[in-house]
Design brief:
With about 90 residues, the chain is an all-alpha fold. The chain is built from 4 helices and no strands.
Amino acid sequence: MDQLADPLAVRTKDQAPETSGGKVRAWLRETGAGLVTGAAADDPSSIATYAQSRVQFGYGQLWTTHWVTLLGMSGAAIAMLATVSQR
């Protein structure tokens, strides 16, 4: 089966589908809603909150980034196991 004919196949950069709108439209189609979701989290009020937290606590809460990363990784692993085991 041709790799480009399979919609679930992993594509390399030069195998991205071309549309009538060109490369930008193809890129937007590939990224999908993740681009909008990621951009929505960085609104001005969030940036102001992060700045105020940095002023008040300095680097004292930097350790939380490690916890959040570990929790996210374990959540992703659990989701993969649940998908594979069909439970």
